[in-house]
Design a protein that fits this description.
Elements: H1 2-16, H2 23-30, H3 34-38, H4 44-64, H5 74-90, H6 93-99, H7 111-131, H8 141-161, H9 168-183, H10 189-205
Helix pairs in contact: 1-4, 4-5, 4-7, 5-7, 5-9, 7-8, 8-9, 9-10
Length: 206
């Protein structure tokens, strides 16, 4: 029943440009009782939340099925995550443009997505600390995870507005942002920061 509700919900959203007016109306059109909906979801945000969270888990599944991924250093793993995630997101761009919350930090529908990303980021940060790519210790890991969470939301917002051919600007921003994250904790972080700012300025002015 959960999958059926999700499919019909997104079908309605993409065809009408907005969620159903009420759970009652949605259930009547789907031909199910309200209790069947509420046994699976507390509200429409929860339906959307499953999709956003599954984008993260699907990305991680793809990465972990790649034998080469286990040999990547932290920077390569982060790049692989972003490139894979945005490739999967492209298959669902209509949903992304229609329903991804503009105020992502305050959105209840993204709570599962953010938690899943942070869980993945924790392992990635620990790997980077163990290999010496990032300086610091495990006590600083939560701070670094929060930095990555902010970077991730920043990339999502940029991609939503990106109109470049093949989203090449998003790809470039991923590379520069990941480089800056790793090199900002070492010299020459200033050079990486300058490169990132130089890339962003003309795009924010347009």
């Amino acid at each position: 029943m959960s999958k059926q509700i999700q499919e019909k919900y997104w079908e309605f959203v993409l065809e009408n440009g907005k969620p159903p007016a009420s759970v009652f109306k949605f259930c009547r059109e789907l031909g199910i009782k309200e209790s069947e909906f509420f046994n699976e979801f507390s509200h429409f945000d929860a339906v959307e939340g499953v999709f956003w969270k599954e984008l993260i888990t699907s990305t991680v599944t793809v990465l972990e099925s790649d034998e080469d991924y286990q040999n990547y250093d932290g920077r390569q793993r982060l790049l692989a995550f972003y490139y894979t995630f945005f490739e999967l997101l492209l298959d669902n761009r209509s949903r992304f443009l229609a329903r991804f919350p503009k105020h992502a930090l305050c959105s209840e529908s993204l709570s599962g997505m953010k938690k899943a990303f942070q869980e993945h980021a924790e392992g990635l940060i620990q790997h980077s600390l163990n290999t010496g790519e990032l300086t610091g210790n495990s006590k600083q890991a939560p701070f670094l995870v929060n930095l990555l969470s902010g970077q991730f939301l920043f990339l999502l917002d940029f991609n939503r507005k990106d109109q470049s051919h093949g989203f090449e600007d998003t790809d470039a921003l991923i590379e520069k942002s990941v480089r800056f994250f790793y090199e900002s904790l070492h010299l020459p972080g200033i050079e990486a920061g300058f490169d990132l700012v130089k890339f962003l300025l003309p795009r924010f002015r347009s």
